[in-house]
Amino acid sequence: EVATLISEYTGGEMVEIQRTEAYGDLNEKAEAEINDGVRPEITMPIDNIDDYDTIFVGYPIWWNEAPAMIASFLENYDFEGKTIIPFNSHGGSGFSNTIEEIKELQPDANISDEGLSISRDKVADSVQDVTDWAKSLDLSEK
Asked: Kindly report the CA angle at 102 between 85 and 22, in degrees rounded to 5?
C-alpha cells in the first residue's frame, strides 16, 4: 500500500521484489534466511536501472531485519551515485538496523536519512502521512 502511494505521488515505476521460490512456511524459512545470512534468488530483473537516480526500497521488518530478499536485491545492482530512500512497515521496531545494512550493502550510494517507517497497524490509515512525506522529498512529477 505504501509503495503504491509513493509510486502514484512521484510518478515512479514500481517493481515488486519476490523470491524465485515461494516461502511455504514463512516464519520458519524467512527467519532462517535472516539468521543464516542466506541470499535467496529473486525474480525481478530491472534492465534499465541506470535510468534511475533515485530508488525507493520498501520492506517489512521481520525479526528486526529486512527480509533476506532485500539484501539479494541490493547485492544484485550497483547503485553507485544513486540515492536510495528506504521505507518500511514494522510492528514497533522502526527501521531497526536496516539503514546500516543498506549502507553496508551499497557503500557508494547516497542513503537518505529521510526514509519513512510506519507501524503496520497504521498502514491503512497512512495515506496523508505518506503523501506529506513524499511531498517533503520534493520528487513529485505532479
From this structure: 95
